[in-house]
């Protein structure tokens, strides 16, 4: 797949904003870059492409098979990626040259400031000097700052990740191998500040494409209480974050003083640790701009949770969600579909629906439905095989999703949470 702009023929629209650069060709080809020139997303010939900081490129498209349309996703092989990225950056160099020469059918947004063309040239120059090799250099620099960022909730894919912890304190769930490559560790103040400095240096102005701040790794909120409050104080001192409770003119006034800012702080928490935290403590987290906490419920069935070696029971997760919501913080609850096969199918649906309904999720909360992706070699796969538990076929996975969705009841139809599919295969950072 290549980007091939024709300066004489194509209609080219360019939009340079405070946080991103967008190029649109003939209304159906779109490229988006951060303001340091890094490709973030592209749509070419009916396929979408997302590029990560470690220079992976994921391609997605739809394919017809047996009368049905299937979503196909794949990571570009090294040579494919090289050709694709070089074509993108060579194409932008052509457009940049055309603007400098006053050529081509190039348009811009209406009501732009008088120096807009100058700003466009400055922005495109940052893009035009890059190529595959420079993106590989960026990858090496990124990997010197971060441990692998294994997963984020979908609404946080454009978050600024701060790895204030590394790894997972539990790291024994049989279905998860995301953090087996590292020991759990909590960064000191000095390490957090150095991490922030390195991130700022790496992202440059591209930091403003990030919409929020996500404290990683797996369950950063397991940090001891006083230590976590100290870390949150550092984050609030280092970054402008929109206060959650400001409304109307107060919020407008705050935003006028902060043209560029983050929408809040977010993080994972496991129910085992969350159950020992008080309502007052969660209020202190809220005061420090923590706006949503994500919990992997996985299932409402204690028998299944025990099989998965989760460290908590379903009732503990329900209590944690209740306490968090009473403090004014929103929640994101993740349930897993397909796990446990036929052995747990009916119990998993029944108890999970019961748990979700008990939580009384509402506007500002998220419910993520995540299909279990089984990988050979996982402890889960070995144990399931020994017990004769087979993976559900796709039609049964779809049926389980429908049963869960049909069973969920919300009291206020005007105040609903967001419900979405959470596909781990689509995540890159």
Q: What is the CATH homologous superfamily assignment of the largest domain?
A: tm_1862 like domain
The largest pleated sheet is described as: 8 strands, mixed
Poorly predicted ranges: none
Structural domains: how many = 2
* Global geometry: globular
Q: Kindly state the mean pLDDT as a whole number?
A: 94
- Fill in the CATH topology of the largest domain: pyruvate-formate lyase- activating enzyme
CATH top level label of the largest domain: Alpha Beta
Distance between the termini: 22 Å
What is the percent of helical residues?
A: 25-40%
Numbering strands along the chain, what is their spatial order in the largest sheet? Answer: 7-6-5-4-3-2-1-8
User: How many extended strands?
Assistant: 17
Kindly name the structural category: alpha/beta
Cα-atom Rg, whole angstroms?
23 Å
How large is the share of residues in beta strands? Answer: 15-25%
Q: What would you say this structure looks like, in words?
A:
There is one protein chain. The chain has 13 helices and 17 strands. It is α/β, with parallel strands linked by helices. The protein has 2 domains: 11-137, no CATH class; 146-426, pyruvate-formate lyase- activating enzyme (Alpha-Beta Horseshoe). The strands form 3 sheets. Strands 7-6-5-4-3-2-1-8 form an 8-stranded mixed beta sheet, with helices on one face. A 7-stranded parallel beta sheet has the order 9-12-13-14-15-16-17. Helix 4 runs parallel beside helix 5 (225-238) and helix 11 (341-359) runs parallel beside helix 13. It starts with 10 loop residues before the first strand and ends in an 8-residue tail after the last strand.
């Amino acid at each position: 797949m290549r980007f091939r702009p024709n300066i004489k023929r194509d209609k080219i629209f360019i939009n340079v904003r405070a946080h991103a650069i967008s190029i649109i060709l003939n209304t159906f080809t779109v490229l988006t870059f951060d303001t340091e020139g890094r490709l973030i997303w592209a749509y070419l010939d009916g396929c979408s492409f997302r590029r990560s900081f470690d220079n992976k490129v994921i391609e997605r498209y739809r394919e017809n098979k047996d009368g049905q349309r299937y979503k196909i996703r794949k990571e570009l092989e090294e040579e494919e990626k090289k050709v694709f990225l070089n074509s993108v950056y060579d194409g932008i160099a052509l457009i940049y040259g055309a603007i400098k020469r006053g050529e081509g059918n190039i348009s811009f947004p209406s009501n732009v400031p008088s120096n807009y063309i100058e700003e466009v040239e400055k922005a495109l120059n940052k893009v035009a000097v890059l190529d595959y090799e420079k993106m590989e250099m960026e990858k090496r620099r990124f990997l010197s700052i971060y441990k692998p960022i294994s997963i984020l909730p979908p609404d946080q894919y454009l978050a600024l990740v701060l790895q204030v912890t590394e790894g997972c304190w539990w790291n024994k769930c049989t279905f998860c191998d995301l953090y087996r490559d590292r020991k759990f560790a909590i960064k000191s103040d000095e390490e957090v500040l150095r991490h922030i400095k390195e991130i700022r240096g790496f992202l440059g102005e591209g930091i403003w494409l990030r919409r929020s701040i996500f404290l990683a790794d797996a369950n950063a909120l397991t940090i001891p209480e006083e230590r976590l409050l100290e870390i949150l104080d550092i984050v609030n001192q280092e970054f402008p974050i929109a206060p959650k409770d400001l409304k109307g003119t107060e919020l407008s006034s705050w935003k006028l003083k902060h043209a560029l800012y983050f929408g809040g702080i977010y993080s994972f928490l496991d129910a085992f640790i969350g159950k020992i935290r008080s309502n007052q403590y969660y209020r202190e987290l809220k005061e420090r701009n923590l706006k949503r906490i994500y919990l992997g419920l996985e299932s409402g069935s204690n028998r299944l949770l025990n099989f998965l070696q989760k460290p908590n029971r379903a009732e503990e997760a329900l209590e944690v969600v209740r306490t968090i919501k009473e403090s004014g913080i929103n929640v994101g609850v993740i349930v897993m579909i397909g796990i446990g096969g036929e052995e747990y199918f009916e119990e998993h649906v029944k108890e999970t629906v019961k748990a979700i309904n008990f939580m009384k999720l509402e506007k500002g909360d998220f419910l993520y439905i995540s299909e279990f992706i089984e990988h050979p070699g996982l402890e889960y796969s070995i144990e399931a095989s020994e017990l004769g538990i087979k993976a559900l076929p796709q039609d049964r996975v779809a049926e389980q999703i429908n049963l869960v969705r049909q069973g969920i009841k919300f009291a206020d139809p005007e105040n609903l949470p967001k419900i979405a599919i959470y596909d781990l295969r689509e995540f890159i950072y």
